[in-house]
Amino acid sequence: MNSEQPNRAKPAPQRPWTLRPPLPTLDHMTFANVGTLGTVPGKREELVQILTRRSSELCEMGCLLYEVGTNEDSPDTVFVMELWETAEAHRASLQLDSVRAAIAEARPLLSGEMGGFSFDVAGSPLRVELS
After folding, report:
1. pLDDT of 44 strictly over 90
2. Strand partners of residue 31
3. N or C: at which end does the chain have fewer Cβ atoms within 10 angstroms?
């Protein structure tokens, strides 16, 4: 009698997220803003807390995506990636009282080192085509 178990494939690891359908196609150009914010040493997580507070106002202003991240290779840097319906919507959001208050709260945590770039989005392989 063969005591060896049959060669069975291991099940795929469970993902903490679910796959979702493709993003809808936008009928106009979108605006992306990607940047880095240098923080005072030891203040990175405090800045992340400010930047990740829930804001329905940003959605109402035309923000499609606002992602905040960190990288252990850069312990005093916060990375921000924004996607807006238009550059004008992004500029207008900077006039919101809640955004101005968050900027004022964050300012003492910043080292002054900032970087980034903006661009008009040409397309995405995750969006469905209009027919």
Report:
1. yes
2. 84, 120
3. N
